[in-house]
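**Entry details**
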Amino acid sequence: MALHTQLDVYKTGYDLLGRVTTLVENMERTFKRLIGEEIVRESAKLLILVYRANVAEDKVPHLTHLMERVKLVELLLRLALDMGKISPRQYWGVTRMTESISKQTTAWKKHSAKRPLHGGQGRHD
């Protein structure tokens, strides 16, 4: 099993966290506190979920939760765009990253769903 920090989905998530942190720094104070900080927090949670999925025997629940969090980050970014807090160029830059995370997570989830769990029956030596 690879270290979670070596996974492409983790690296993309880390880059996303850096990018949204920079975007939030430039937001007006009220929006930054209400929505911007939530964008950063949720982006950081993506990295924790990658770690959890990587070490879990049953990865599917963690990957499902990861997909939900990615959608929440996308929603918050869309709100920031619609309210004029980020530019369309900034929005498209970060949504390319969230799309990449979604695609990688979907592929990982499909692969994990096909693998049998190693517990409960038979010998495992």
In short: Residues 7-111 form a domain with the de novo design (two linked rop proteins) fold (CATH 1.20.1440.60). The two ends are 17 Å apart (CA to CA).
